[in-house]
Amino acid sequence: MKVALIGLRLSVGIRLIADSLAGALRRLGVEVIFLGEQAYRAPEGVPTIAVSDGSSYRAMLRDSFRPVLYREAVNALKSAQPDICYFMSVHPANAGLAWAIRREVRDSQGRRPVIAMHLHDPLPHPGLASLTIFATQQVQVRMADRVVVYGAELARQVQRYYRVPLRRIAVIRHGASRPPRETPPVDSGGNGGFQWFSFLGRIEPYKGLEVFLGAARRLHAENPKARFFVGGAGDLARYRSSIEELGTSITVEHRELSNEETDDVMRSSWAVVLPYNSATQSGVIPVAYWNACPVIVTRVGGLREVVREGETGFIVDRGDAMAVAERMRALAGNHALRWRLGGGAFSFYDRWLRWERIANDLLTALSR
Fold first, then answer.
1. DSSP per residue over 61-106, as a string?
2. Each residue of 327-366: pLDDT tens digit?
3. Chain segment 165-207, per-residue pLDDT in tens
4. Could you tell me if residue 38 is inside a domain?
5. Of 83, 209, 271, 276, which shows the fewest CB atoms inside 10 Å?
6. What is the number of structural domains in the chain?
7. Do 36 and 144 reside in the same domain of the chain?
8. Longest dimension (CA), the chain
9. Is residue 181 part of a domain?
10. Which range marks the domain in which residue 133 is found?
């Protein structure tokens, strides 16, 4: 079997998914090619066909009106003869390219390849581009044989808002974008033990950093030894005063952290906190589980589908800083609870969030 992974524009998170999925498919004996953004460097052994700029919204619009993009892409796919064309990200050129694939590309048996479109956010995050993204995705799914999502809640959203029947929706899990791990990390807690509660990932309004900071202030008022960590690029202007109130109790790394830095922070955390105001899924949770670190999340989107209350972490209502602070209070200093939840988190990764399992589920769902 041969799979073409198509990513005309890749965000940081989707790059990690592309790396992980490509590697997992190859370990299953599947031949993989990548077609898309020219800046992407695929894992070793994965042929890459660069056809798009993909660096900005302007570049995406420009690419969608470049006939050469479609011609080069279709010619490459005609030569490769994939059984599955898996579109990994939203792009205005996806629908046109999928239409051309339907007309011109055939697999080694002379059949049209299965066309799958992945919707990471069926309901886009709030912002200026949300309506444009939603409209683009509406067009994309009309060209798909299957729509792929991360979770049952997202499948219901696709059914409701895109009018796609459930039989055409493939549900898989979001895996941990790290190398396969057979046992929990032996250095969980680091040399200094568990140090802080952490908030990790790109700073976006929908991620509820204000809730994390509000909970941190409550906990710090009761426990001056409590420590907190914020790591990620993005706009921190609206949070500056809240951060300053926490003084030396909070460490802020206002930049994109490396995988190694992220792992170090997670292993030193009592919990990773994801107090999102809106969400679909998150790549942070699987990586936390890979690091045997529990999470505290809000009851939004599909997050609760990958968190077991009291087993891998805690779930609270959206916007409830007091409830987040209560869960922090229960964990802070309680090593027995931290180790138990961390063990549950790793067990969840081991059973459900390995990319080989996810890749196999995907192939099964997309098979004819």
1. HHHHT-HHHHHHHHHHHHHH--SEEEE-S--TTHHHHHHHHHHH--
2. 999 999 999 999 999 999 999 999 999 999 999 999 999 9
3. 999 999 999 999 999 999 999 766 655 589 999 999 999 999 9
4. yes
5. 83
6. 2
7. yes
8. 69
9. no
10. 2-175+354-366
